Each structure stands twice: as structure tokens, then as C-alpha cells.
Amino acid sequence: MGRLPLSQSYTAGLTQSNSQNSGLSLMSPGDTPHEIAAPRARVPFSSPLANGRLTEPRNYAPRTSGQPIQSLPPPRFNLNLESIPAVSENIPQETSQDPFGSPAPSDATSLIPFPNLPPPTVQMAMLDNTQLDRAMEMALIKANAPKSDKLHQLTGTYTGFPSLHMALNANYFPFIDGPSSAKPVTYGVIRLKNIPFSTKRAEVVAFIGRNSKMLNDADEPVHIIMDRATSKTMDAFVEFQTMEDAIRCAERHHQFAQSGRVSRLGDRPIEVELSSQAALMRELYPLARGVFWDGATPNILPPCSREPWGNFKGFISCEEMVMLVKHVEVPHRSPFSKECPQRPYECLISTLGKFPWFATDFITLAQRGAMYKASFKLIRLLTGAVSRNDDPVNLNHQLFRRVVASVMKCKGFTVLQKDNIAFLVQMGQAEMRMYHQPENASSWVHQYSVTAKPGCPQDVLDWYIRIIREQSTRDVLVRPISERTAIQETLKDTDEYWGYFFQEVGYTQGPDFDYMTLKQCAFLEFSAIERLLTRALGHH
Question: Which residue stretches does the UniProt record annotate as biased composition, category Polar residues (predicted)?
């Protein structure tokens, strides 16, 4: 009799079902040509055809290696949170714990992420001083970062906290007023008149000579003045290390002119004369009315009611910065900028580098915001031009690095503004440290004047911010629930790295905030820091 096909050899006359098919799939098929010569291997489990009957297949789920199968009852629901004794010695110790019980009590400084508990920042604020100090030490151990000497000195007391006098000491206090840290300079200056409108910075450097003791290239000694309204190139100024160096350079070119050797820049004869910081500042900020420049230091004249148009309204206007960007965005409407595309970027470098940021009484947040927006847009435009290789001669990587460096070195910009620029250009952490940017710079949201002191250890900075964060959180927790809820809702829309520092500062909103001066911001922020440290450390 002929052999039945495989599809009929096991299922002839039987009703097909999924369970039967699943069982049949585990049976060995009949002899196949490549198995005839070899003996059939024994199936290690009972066949579904045992005793000539078809049944539901057994459960072939894998067993735990080395563990016998035991039919144990489910664990009891233990309301006393006591562990259930082991039923068998073969069961591992961890399986004898009640799976329905609460977890074992953890360290006092650990934060349990249950949804009904406050956020970790609030939990940390609820801990006492001993637990807070221990939590800080545990965080340092996890980060594998040993304490710096200054932090050891701060926390190396009996209580683990310094006195208020020690915390406010300038040797340990890690914050400074960024704009006020800028200082006026007294460099020597010469002026180049009647230069070609397409003059490049490298041509000016070659004309002066590198042996003439100009400032270093990183200090941007060359300032080619551009009219921000028309983008027309005006005169050029060059800064020297001392006034004597500038005098020698001007005298040398004066002697050349007397001997008949006219100084030329390109094909055009130019004039070289001794100048001053005051003349340079007047040319860089021509719309600054009501100000007398004493070198690089501005002296604001008292307002005159009879001539209000001559009163001081700022060193630079928002419209000037908008026009500076427009020359790059719409170059076909600026014939001078079209022929010299690098000039707006060089104008930005000089504007930021020479701006009198130390005069915080006369600089508003709106004016600084306009300068920052222009810087951000110009860097973004230059990034696209360099990546597309639009003009490799004028818009190159060297110009890009100069613009980025001038923004990151700017004393007037906040930590967050510089962090935005660093993110835009994909700057690495090591390079950001070169510009004295702290860690977690993106969390300095409400610091409009306070910056990190250059050279301050990062762990000292983190320690002060932690004290500010926890003390401000405690202050909010003791408020009535109606006030506390409103403040906590505000924190959800901002960063909590500094805690409720913004609540302690109490900035206003709206136009009044835009017209605040940098000095007013510094006063509010440093006063808030002092109050928080006084409440946190006043009893130590």
C-alpha cells in the first residue's frame, strides 16, 4: 500500500483544531530521504499519540534551571508588612519576601519617586541640615569628583556649614556682576582716513606691520567703522598696547609723507594720524547724545528740557541693531554691504568689544536684548553662509570664529544668552569652560546680572546654588496654601535649578522690566542672594 502524504498520515478522519495542530507540530514526521540512513532520535518528552489517543498537548513551558516544580499556594496578604517565612530550603532567599509589602526602608537621603510625594527639590528642602550635608556628600561620591580645597574650607566646620560672614567673604563667594566686571581701557589709538570701502582687516594689519606692537589678534585691534544705516565704510582705527607705541607708528608714517613716500592702502593714498579712545568711541556710537567721552569712559550730561533731542537716550538704539542685521538678510538693498559682505560682522565685533558695559546705570535690558538678538541672528546667518561656501574669501571660518569669540567674551551678556550661542554653534564643554561658562548654564534663567566668578571651583558654585535653592523652597513651603500653590505652578514653567530664586528677587513684568537698568538688576539679585544666605546660615 502506498505511503500517505504527510498531511494525511496523522490527521486522517480527525476534526482539525488549533490545539491538535499545535500538538502535531511537536511530533516527529515520517522518514525523509536524508534521515533514512541514520537512526531516529528519541523524543525527550511524551508524544501526544501515547496510548493511541489524541489529547490536548502538555504545557512545555521552560522550567527554572535546577529547581523542582512545586505547587505552592500564593503568598498571604500581610497587612503587618512582615516577611513570609520560606516554604522550602530550595527557594532562594529573595523569593521569601512578601511581594505585596512595602519596600525596605532606604537611606535617609534617598528620594522615593512616589507620585504623591513632593518633587525631589522639595524633598531635599524638607531634610534637616545633617541629612542635607550627607546628601551633598553622596552626590559628590556618585559624581566621582573630590571636593575642592575651598569647599573643604567652607564645610570643614563642626556643623558642616560655614558662618554667614565666611560665606559672604570674597574669597569664597562665587558670584560677580558680569557687566560691572568690564573695565575701561587706555590703549593707544591711530586713525586711518580715506581708506577704500572694500578694505579688509588683513590689509590694515599688513599696512601697520605686526612689529608695531598692536594688540593681539584675539583682542581685535582693528576697527573699521561702518555706518549702520547705509553700511558705508568710514575710517579705520587701530589700537596699540601703549600710547607711546601709537605715537611711534604715527610719526613713522608722517616721516614717510615728508620724504615723498605717501602711505597707500591698496591703490589709494591714505592719512595716518594719532587719535584717542574718545574719538574711537564717538565714531562707534554716533547716535549717543548727551554724553562726553573721557577716553573710553562715558560721562552722561544732565538733561536739558529746552533741547530734549540732545538728551541721553542710550549708547545704541534698537533700530541700529535691526539695520545691522538687514544689511546681511537683504544684501541687494545695501550696495556697500553687497560688495563687502564681511563688514556687518566686523561692525558687530567692534560694537560688542568696545561697548561700555561697566556703565550699568545707563544700559537697559531692552538695549542689551536688541544687541543679543542681532548677535544671534548674525551668527545664524554666517553659519549658513560658511556651510554653503557662499563667499570663501570674505565669509570664512576665521571670521566665524572671531564673531563667536566676541559674543562669548562679551561681559554684558548673561550666562543663558551665551549658552544659547554655544548651543547654536554646537560648542563643546571644554571650549565653554574657556569662556568661564558654568555647568548647567541653561538653568540660569532668571539671572540677568549675576554670573559665575572666573576660576571658581564648580563644586563651590553648586554648593551655593544648592543653599539658595533649598532655602527659597523652604520659604515657599511655609506660605499659605493659596500663595504656595500659585508660586509652585509658576515653577513648572521655568527651571528649578535655582529653586524659587525668582520669587525672592521679585522682578516686575511688562514694559517696566524692559526699562530696568543693569545696575538695578544687579542690586535686586545680589540682595536676594544675601537674604537667602542670611536665613540659611545666619544661625551657624
Answer: 1-25
**Model confidence over 183-236: pLDDT tens digits?**
999 999 999 999 998 899 999 999 998 788 899 999 999 999 998 888 888 899
Taking each helix axis from N to C end, the angle separating 458-477 and 518-537, rounded to the nearest 10 degrees, works out to 80
CA angle 228, 233, 235 (to 5 degrees): 110
Rounded CA-CA distance 207/133 in Å is 62
What lies within 8 Å, CB to CB, of 313 at 6+ separation is 289, 290
CA pair distance 184, 198, nearest whole angstrom: 30
From the CB of residue 168, how many other CB atoms can be counted at a distance below 10 Å? 15
Q: Which domains does the chain have, with CATH numbers?
A: 188-410 (3.30.70.330)
Please indicate, yes or no, whether the overall pTM of this predicted structure exceeds 0.70.
Answer: yes
Please check whether residue 422 is in contact with residue 408, taking contact to mean a CB–CB distance below 8 angstroms: yes
Residue-level length of the chain? 540
Question: At residue 473, what are phi and psi to the nearest 5 degrees?
Answer: -70, -40
How many C-beta neighbours within 10 Å does residue 231 have? 26
